[in-house]
Design goal:
- The protein is mainly β.
- It has a single domain, classed as Methylamine Dehydrogenase, Chain H (7 Propeller), CATH 2.130.10.10.
- Helices cover 1% and strands 41% of the residues.
- The protein has one helix and 28 strands.
- The longest helix has 4 residues.
Length: 363
């Protein structure tokens, strides 16, 4: 009986892995949506039955959010696209980079390329543009990162639906405390080493790669930047450097443990111009003390010849006990750990370029 679902989105479709609580062997279906980019997926368990959502992009048909209420056996879509800019916005959605559940029943948030945030109140079937962020005066100055300009992180505050944090490459972190009507840049302490002189620590313009929230203290956040790893203890108001102890400060992924406080995982990558682990040795970094110290995991069970990257949404945890951790590489390999990162095994190989991995225990 399937009790664990693993969703792997790639540049050529979606694969679904099914396993038991043991998570030792997997059966797979796919590709769903062959030859379509799948940059975002979500397993929403808030309704009467789980709903899967996938943010897909076709070279011929454009972007679409599809959903399934039977764990991927059948899929549905909104005619003409669930995520669309309104007339007069002067933009067209290229990709859906992020799908996350809101605090309120039925609410789903989406982050897109070009950089915009959308909100749904019907579990992802229809979305509306969050105008407060789209009309922000900084938007015209947001640049485009190597992978495109997109809101790749959206973090609703678990105790206050009016508070949401979003991050974009290359614009930085923005926060709202009034449900999206107004947004403030929140990058104090985060560097932008590609900017000269006094703009080294600018108000906005940082190339943030991923932000994750602590499961116990919602004001504690972990941030992986283009260069730098940071922690905030005031909900993103200020950031402090926690990169010392890591083999490199570059990377894309940042994930927090679903239950343990101050515990986070990253996948260090050597340099922006290399984009593979230091010396090609795949290792996952773990902190259990809020970034004061880091341990590299995977000796003896992760490959020592891994010349590829793990992207910002291509690492995740499930909610088992002990927790499972998964990551997928741009070489199409997916790896998993069932003991919180101490040991690893390969879950899948030879998939297309992996962009997103999500896992959860099913009821």
């Amino acid at each position: 009986m399937t009790t664990t679902l693993l969703m792997v989105g790639t540049r050529k479709g979606l694969w679904l892995g099914h396993s038991t609580d043991a998570r030792q062997t997997w059966s797979w279906t796919g590709p769903h949506f062959p030859m379509e980019d799948v940059y975002s997926v979500l397993l929403d368990q808030r309704g009467e039955r789980p709903r899967l959502l996938a943010g897909c992009s076709s070279s011929w048909l454009g972007p679409q959010v599809r959903w399934s209420d039977d764990l991927g056996e059948t899929w549905h879509e909104t005619p003409n696209g669930a995520v669309r800019f309104p007339e007069g916005a002067g933009a067209t959605v290229a990709r859906v980079w992020q799908l996350v559940p809101g605090v309120e029943d039925g609410v789903v948030w989406a982050g897109t390329e070009p950089g915009a945030v959308f909100r749904s109140e019907d579990r992802g079937e229809h979305f509306e543009l969050v105008r407060g962020l789209w009309d922000h005066p900084h938007r015209e100055e947001w640049d485009e990162g190597f992978g495109g300009q997109a809101f790749h992180t959206i973090l609703p505050h678990p105790q206050d639906p009016a508070r949401v944090l979003a991050a974009i490459s290359t614009g930085g972190v923005y926060r709202t405390e009034d449900g999206g009507a107004t947004w403030q840049a929140s990058n104090s302490g985060v560097k932008a080493e590609f900017m000269p002189g006094e703009r080294f620590f600018p108000e906005f313009g940082q190339c943030v790669h991923k932000v994750a929230r602590d499961p116990v203290d919602p004001e504690r956040l972990f941030l992986q930047n283009h260069g730098g790893v940071y922690r905030s203890d005031d909900g993103g108001g200020t950031w402090q450097d926690i990169a010392p102890g890591l083999p490199t400060e570059f990377g894309f992924a940042m994930v927090t443990h679903p239950r343990k406080p101050s515990t986070a995982y990253s996948f260090p990558i050597s340099q922006a111009w290399e984009r593979w682990p230091v010396d090609g040795r795949a290792r996952v970094a773990r902190t259990t003390d809020g970034g004061q110290s880091w341990a590299l995991l995977g000796d003896g069970s992760l490959p020592d010849s891994f010349y590829t990257a793990v992207m910002r949404d291509a690492m995740c945890t499930d909610d088992h006990d002990p927790v499972g951790i998964y990551f997928g590489g741009r070489n199409g390999a997916v790896w998993g750990s069932t003991d919180e990162g101490d040991t690893w095994s390969q879950v899948h190989a030879d998939l297309p370029d992996v962009m997103v991995v999500r896992a959860a225990r099913l009821p």
